[in-house]
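Archive maintenance. Older records in this collection stored only the sequence; we are now back-filling the structure field for every entry so that each record is complete. The fields below show one back-filled record exactly as it appears after the update. Entries are processed alphabetically, and Xanthine permease is next in the queue.

ARCHIVE ENTRY
Title: Xanthine permease
Organism field: Paenibacillus rhizosphaerae
Length field: 452
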Amino acid sequence: MEQNHQADTTQFSGKRHPLKTFSLGIQHVLAMYAGAVLVPLIVGNALNFTTEQLTYLISIDLLACGVATLLQVWGNRFFGIGLPVMLGCAFQAVSPMIAIGLKDGVSAIYGAIIASGIFVVLFSGIFGKLIKLFPPVVTGSVVTIIGVTLIPVALNDLGGGQGAEDFGSPLNLCLGFGVLIFIILMNRFATGFLRSISVLIGLIAGTAAAAIFGHVDLGPLKEAGWFHAVKPFNFGKPTFHASSILTMILVAIVSVAESTGVFMALGKIVDKDISSKDLARGYRAEGLAIVLGGIFNSFPYTTYSQNVGLVQMSRVKTRDVIVVAGGLLIVIGFVPKIAALTQLVPTSVLGGAMVALFGMVVSSGIRMLGGQVDLNRFENLFVIACSVGMGLGVSVVPDLFKAIPEDLRILVDNGIVAGSVTAIVLNLMFNGFKGGVSSAEKGEAARNEHAA
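Back-filled structure field:
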């Protein structure tokens, strides 16, 4: 374990030009920015926040995303997975936070977030021992589920954003598919650094094209200030209610389940074996990030799967890029004017890039299944079929479990969680704790046994 940890620190070093590293960091920020901003917008509007309060909520959220990312990527002996991961708001926390806020007030939201973060920190070691539940057939299925459940999000954005008046308009479709085609061509004909920042170039080109057609709103840039002060407990001291705390603990468990799949996927991408101790440090960092979110009145944080696709596509697996991205988020959090610049990217342009990014997550899962799982065994095919089917089905039909009590629904109405639980349970039924290895590995083991 210690050897793995020491070897992994070399991922910080490299001969890449600082400007290239900076550009790659911007690319990661843009990949997760929409998701990070969407949560405070939804929650703030639902709880009738004023414009000033909403501005603070977005700014502190971005700053906390940066700090949380640095905690996770640090990778010391106490906390941090040490992989090129980005942290952002947990989407599954939106509905519970709104419900808590409407029932017990905003202060109860942050009391529950702090309590749930402490819970994750305290029980991180136990969570880390669950690595046996994630053999290749489960990990590959989970990663595939993550990708396929995110594709609808990308297509909604490509059309202009769900609920937008001009959703699916010819201009939005041209911008979205134009960016996607541009990224495809860049990956086909460009080489080296240009290929690695193809998504960033595509977003810039798409925004420029949108500006020509008057599709870029400069209002947020003009209205934003140059500096934003940050202070703990900006919305008041936290209050603690048992039901609210239990709800957010369930949300935290869901986040841990999702993060496990992301950690395992990134481990495969960067060729690092993820141990139970690695997972425990990752969970501990995530718990600290959740506590941080509660103290600064932002949100619970979790590992963002959309950046996995970017790591895979850019082929840049070093952590220095993520450190730059985390630092940029912190700067953006202090300077609303800079944050407003990223808001200039039209939703349809961002959606076009997301199709490629989320598609890479799917292909990463398929590669894991094809290379490490014996697909000639019906049991493995059955695990994959049911888990991916459940994950995609719950995402497409979100009202399937609407009759279940709200406190329990968080465990079943999220496609990633539903599919992951299905994969874990079915794998235990059919394979026990061994998992389904590939035919090549199985044959090698048989040859070794015969030779012995």
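Update note: Residues 1-10, 438-452 have pLDDT under 50 and may be disordered. The longest strand covers residues 87-89.
Entry marked complete.
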